[in-house]
Specification:
Number of strands: 2
Strand order of the largest sheet: 1-2
Helix content: 10-25%
Low-confidence stretches: none
Order of helices and strands: HHEEH
Oligomer: single chain
Distance between the termini: 7 Å
Shape: flat
Largest sheet: 2 strands, antiparallel
Strand content: 15-25%
Length: about 80
């Protein structure tokens, strides 16, 4: 799978589709703070520079284990 990083808007539709397809439970902020979230598809935010010249990039990190991944179908900007 190829992901166009210039198109990704970090909407996280791919992350939600992956969780729904693979029956991964959603956890709240308390459990997440304890390190108890499970994610096969992650969206990592990378911040560059110092204020006021800050640039944020988003790096999707898919798992690549699905034959027909649901994350590719739900992308609203067709980055996959």
């Amino acid at each position: 799978m190829v992901i166009d990083l210039n198109r990704c808007t970090a909407c996280q539709a791919c992350v939600i589709a992956c969780k729904a397809e693979n029956n991964i439970p959603f956890v709240g902020p308390e459990e997440s703070a304890k390190g108890r979230d499970i994610a096969w598809m992650e969206l990592i935010a990378l911040h560059e520079g110092d204020y006021p010249n800050v640039k944020t990039r988003f790096l999707p990190r898919p798992c690549f284990h699905c034959d027909k991944p649901p994350c590719t179908k739900v992308c609203p900007v067709h980055a996959t």
